[in-house]
Each structure stands twice: as C-alpha cells, then as structure tokens.
Specification:
The chain has eleven helices and 15 strands. It is α+β, with helices and mostly antiparallel strands. β13 and β14 form a beta hairpin. α3 packs antiparallel against α4, α7 packs across α10 and α9 packs antiparallel against α10. It is elongated and about 85 Å long. The two termini are about 40 Å apart. The N terminus is likely disordered.
Length: about 400
C-alpha cells in the first residue's frame, strides 16, 4: 500500500501531469494529429510518465541507491531510443527531427555526466562523509610529522583564460611574464618548477623579500589589464597552502589555495574537541580523511581504491603546530596588508548550506548562511544521531 505522503511526492506529481497531458492530447488528436508539434508533445508527455515510473520501479526492485552502471545503461539506452525514428521521417518532419535529436542529446548528456561524475551528477552520499573506517586499525605510527602553512611563490604570471590542463600537461608548457623572486631561506622547490613554497617559519623576519615578490606580481598583473583581487590568473600569485610534512612525502588538503578563510575553517575543524572525522574530501587527487581518536590523529589518502597514506601521530603536539602556524600567517599577512593597502588573500564572504535527501530522492534545505566548518559539524552531528537519510553541505549559490 502506498503511503498518503508519497502520493504527493515529486514522482507521483509527474505521473499525474503525464496522465492529464495524455487526456488532453487524446482529445485534440482528431484536429491536430497531423500538426508537426503533435508528435513532439506526445513524446514529451511519454517522457514525463516514463522517467518517474522508472524511478518508482527502481526504488521498489533495486533500492534507492542503484549501482552507477545501471543508471548509466538506462540513460544511454534512453539517448539512443529517440534516434530510431529518424530514418522514418522526411523533410516535412524537420521540427520533429530536431526535437528528437535534442531529447537524445539531453539523455546522452545525463549519461556522460553520471558516468564521469560531473558536478551535479555526483551522489551526495559519496561526498566523503560516510567512509569505511577499517583503515584506522592498521595505520602506521609516526613520530616526526610536522605542519606549516606555505605561501606560494609563483615564477611567472601566466594567462590561462578558460583553459584547463592536468598538472603533468600544463607546467612544462606554460610561459608568461617572470615575477621578481624573493631571497628567502628554506624555499621549497616543487618538481614541476612552476612555483615554490615559502613556509611561514622561514618568512618570519624576511617579510620585505616576500613583499618585493608581491609588488612585482601586482605590477605585471596591472600591466596585463588583470584585476589582482578577482582575476584567476593573477590571484594564483597569492596562493596559500596547508602542508603536512611526513618523513617520505607531503600531504596537502585540497582546499582553495587563494582563500585565507578556508585556512581558518580547516584549522578550526582540526582543533574542535572530541573524536571523529575532522576533515574529509574527495577530488581528482584522491580521497582524503583526517580523523581523531583519543590521543592520535589518523591521516588517510586513497586514489581509486589504492591506499597511498595511512598514518597516525600524536594529537596534542600537532595541534600546537596548527596554532603556531596560524599565528605566524596572521602576523605575516598583517604586515603585507599594511604595506600593500589591500587584502589579496581573501575571497568575498561566502556562506554554506546544509541539505538532506529523503528516501524518495527529494532534496531539502535544512539551514543556510553557515560557515563551512559549522555546516560540516552539523552534518556530523545529524549522522551521529543515527539518521538514515543523506546529509551534505554546499556553498550557497553553487
């Protein structure tokens, strides 16, 4: 028996609309059946009924979270089906042919988006909040893990426009206006030679050298007609990163490199008392988790199921390093802001929203206007209460 609340859900409302549309089209058939728009209307009404019906059948037979392969297969089939009618149409059916091609394109776009996990097609439950925690039982204990915040020292201003490249493709090929380089101790050379890292512990007392670098970058950006506070190609010169220095490698949480607010939010989450997940993220570089358990912090990274980092280290000494690095960063940026007269390390204020998804796939806004750390803390709180529904966060306006 179908519950009354479900009869008012979005799939059922779509079925009601499809039924009403079918009745109207049937009443108009004798007069308008030969019109070019009539077959298109029939196809749209059919789609309006098939899609929610498929959703309801899938929910009953497969469950609310089918495998991605099932979704992709259905969407590819749906993209092919409208094209079957094209050989049977002539020039006088041009409008109908265009409509069928567009319908096929929509399903093909959905199939590719689901297959490639484009933004908007990702399952919110795969956002990195719910994870298998078996890795915690076999993490490697380390005694020499350090942390610092690094300011990115870019070698040149490069105009990339709207182009996107992988790291391996772009760095050897890009050429731009060279930036005057600072004479700083401990500058860490990166393997791609595109930028270097200046740790706050090395910058303290040498802010004038970093100031010389930023003035050179600003002069080049302005000569190229770029806005230093909003243009992506120029803002990259003011990047900041978080660096976990492990014995054999470095770990960098994937957060916005030109937004000091993200730095504050990350460290706030890390310093929150109690056990549990302090940070989790999934992007093209891997699947990252930092979790607190008792006296230790556990750091885990995997890429396509292959584990690359699984370590634990003492929590209190590391938290002291977090606090000290943030204090150094604020002192350095305070001097730079005073000298330059502007803040080039912060993005415009941005707020986050918390959402939930019910068993029918309906999405609801729970609360907006939150800082990111607040929104993610609320997600963890709801999940700790044992709620079965899916919760996640998104930037407002995304």
């Amino acid at each position: 028996m179908v519950k009354r609340s479900r009869l008012a859900s979005l799939p059922f409302l779509a079925l009601y609309a499809a039924a009403i549309g079918a009745v109207i089209l049937n009443a108009l058939r004798s007069r308008w059946a030969s019109a070019a728009w009539y077959p298109i209307a029939v196809g749209l009404v059919a789609a309006l009924g098939i899609i929610p019906l498929q959703h309801l059948m899938q929910e009953q037979l497969v469950g609310p979270s089918p495998r991605r392969s099932v979704q992709v297969g259905f969407l590819f089939f749906a993209s092919f089906f409208p094209l079957v009618a094209l050989p049977f149409l002539g020039r006088h059916h041009l409008l109908l042919m265009v409509g069928l091609i567009l319908m096929s394109g929509v399903f093909l776009w959905a199939a590719l988006g689901t297959l490639r996990k484009w933004p908007g097609f990702r399952d919110p439950s795969a956002s990195g909040i719910k994870r298998d925690d078996k890795w915690l039982d076999h993490s490697q204990l380390l005694s020499d893990v350090s942390f610092d915040i690094a300011l990115l020292v870019q070698r040149q201003v490069v105009i990339m426009g709207n182009q996107r490249f992988s790291v391996q493709e772009r760095f050897p090929k890009l050429k731009g206006e060279p930036i005057e380089q600072p004479d700083l101790p401990g500058l860490l050379e990166m393997e791609h030679d595109y930028f270097r890292l200046a740790f706050t512990k090395d910058v303290m007392g040498h802010e004038e050298e970093l100031l010389r670098y930023y003035r050179s970058a600003l002069a080049i950006c302005r000569s190229l007609g770029l806005d230093p506070k909003s243009d992506r190609d120029c803002r990259s010169c003011f990047g900041i990163s978080l660096e976990f220095v492990l014995p054999s490698q470095m770990f960098r949480p994937p957060i916005a490199p030109s937004d000091v607010q993200e730095i504050h939010e990350f460290i706030t989450m890390m310093l929150t008392p109690g056990d549990g997940v302090k940070f989790s993220a999934e992007d093209q570089t891997g699947d990252d988790t930092i979790e607190a358990r008792g006296d230790y912090l556990h750091l885990h990274r995997s890429d396509s199921g292959k584990e690359s980092i699984n370590v634990r280290f003492l929590r209190e000494p590391f938290e002291n390093q977090l606090k000290a690095a943030l204090e150094r960063l604020e002192a350095i940026l305070g001097k730079l802001r005073n000298e330059l007269g502007e803040d080039y390390w912060s993005k415009p204020d941005r707020t986050w929203s918390m959402y939930r998804q019910d068993d029918n796939g309906n999405r609801f806004l729970i609360q907006g206007g939150l800082m990111r750390a607040q929104a993610e803390a609320q997600v963890r709180q709801f999940e700790a209460l044992g709620h079965k529904q899916t919760y996640w966060t998104e930037p407002q306006g995304s």
